[in-house]
Design brief:
Length: about 140
């Protein structure tokens, strides 16, 4: 058996980041235990100034039980582009999954696309789940 694969998922609780989470759960996670109890605790969330999305926590709870995956959270503050690349290095991720808002060319230039930056600068493979995958959240999508 080889080394366990570490998969990172860029999460800001937006619809596209939820689609990225769902895609990763469906396509990358096979076997592995997710102690989310600590992250779910209100005091922990308040300490970090977070308001975790209930839908995301439920998805993670389900995948931890069904696919026996270990899920951990690490909180970063700052520019998402740089922090995602930092996470790849610090956590020694084997792959990273992020959502794409599907910005047009002008908005992408003005807003500086996070997914484009991460694809170009991360030291591991990056999967970008496009906005059209949002239908997967409703359970309609197929593998």
């Amino acid at each position: 058996m080889g080394k366990a694969r570490l998969v990172g998922i860029g999460m800001d609780y937006s619809a596209t980041s939820k689609a990225a989470l769902k895609w990763a759960i469906d396509n990358l996670i096979e076997e592995a235990l997710i102690p989310l109890d600590e992250f779910r605790e209100i005091n922990v969330s308040k300490h970090y100034g977070l308001n975790p999305d209930k839908e995301v926590l439920n998805m993670l709870d389900t995948v931890s039980k069904v696919k026996k995956v270990t899920v951990v959270a690490k909180v970063y503050w700052g520019d998402a582009r740089e922090k995602l690349c930092d996470a790849v290095e610090h956590l020694k991720l084997d792959t990273l999954v992020v959502g794409s808002r599907g910005l047009g060319v002008l908005k992408r230039v003005l807003l500086r696309s996070v997914s484009k930056y991460v694809v170009q600068n991360a030291s591991c493979p990056v999967t970008v789940v496009k906005g059209s995958s949002l239908s997967c959240l409703s359970g309609i999508c197929r593998k």
